[in-house]
């Protein structure tokens, strides 16, 4: 019990960790992470600004893209305070309530992203397989309902997590493996029975990420079947090109997610910096690359960016 830190409310205080073994060089790490935050915040902010200001982009696909950008901003702002404090100012202590709040948002936004990627796959399915009824199927009210579904589902799934942790006794040193609070990291710290926590965590993964990825895969099977029925090779490529941005967004979200899950489950004896790097990839790659991919692959956004930056069309 001597290594446990408690605040005045009797709740434990957690110690954040940067890169294990590189504590003396952690300020330099922010020279890498700082530009990534800037790309994420500026890039996603530009996407929102362009979609709002360009009347031709007021379509379901771009509404979903806007929700994806808001979500990516949420991911970046969720980790920024403690990453900045840990790497730049060596402020490594975080209270229980602050840690629970950060953990909630860190897991809340990726779960929304999974739902948004799912509804975006439905958008691509309708656009390719049933284009004549696209506007009647994806009405504004239906788009709003689909967005609200992704948000409400995420809230209902993540809301119990802080309470499931708060009921447990903490009697260890309470040193976290990252510069932010992650649920898989936190559940290894309590001294009590974490069976319910593990079961609920598995339920969240199976009923959201696993189900969403399976439905996305199924939608692309249907899309591919429709595309292969097109006689012209040029038309097939043109149709498939409509899905490239979304496919890239799916890959850069799920590949790091799978990597983090595999490392947490099977890499317990791996060096601690491996877990840190995998979590950084999971939390930084989608917010940084999503606006880049959509800016490069979407002609309307690229044209507006060209006007903003150099005053000419691309």
UniProtKB/TrEMBL annotation:
SUPFAM superfamilies: Family A G protein-coupled receptor-like (SSF81321). It is a multi-pass membrane protein. InterPro entries: GPCR_Rhodpsn (IPR000276), GPCR_Rhodpsn_7TM (IPR017452), Olfact_rcpt (IPR000725), OR51/52/56-like (IPR050402). PROSITE patterns: G_PROTEIN_RECEP_F1_1 (PS00237), G_PROTEIN_RECEP_F1_2 (PS50262). CDD domains: 7tmA_OR51-like. The chain crosses the membrane at residues 28-51, 63-84, 104-122, 143-165, 199-223, 244-267, 273-294. GO terms for biological process: cellular response to lipid. It is found in: Cell membrane; Membrane. GO terms for cellular component: plasma membrane. Residues 43-294 form the G-protein coupled receptors family 1 profile domain. It comes from the Eukaryota. One of its GO terms (molecular function) is G protein-coupled receptor activity. Keywords: Cell membrane, G-protein coupled receptor, Membrane, Olfaction, Receptor, Sensory transduction, Transducer, Transmembrane, Transmembrane helix. Putative odorant or sperm cell receptor. Belongs to the G-protein coupled receptor 1 family. This is Olfactory receptor. It comes from Moschus moschiferus (Siberian musk deer). The lineage of its organism: Eukaryota, Metazoa, Chordata, Craniata, Vertebrata.
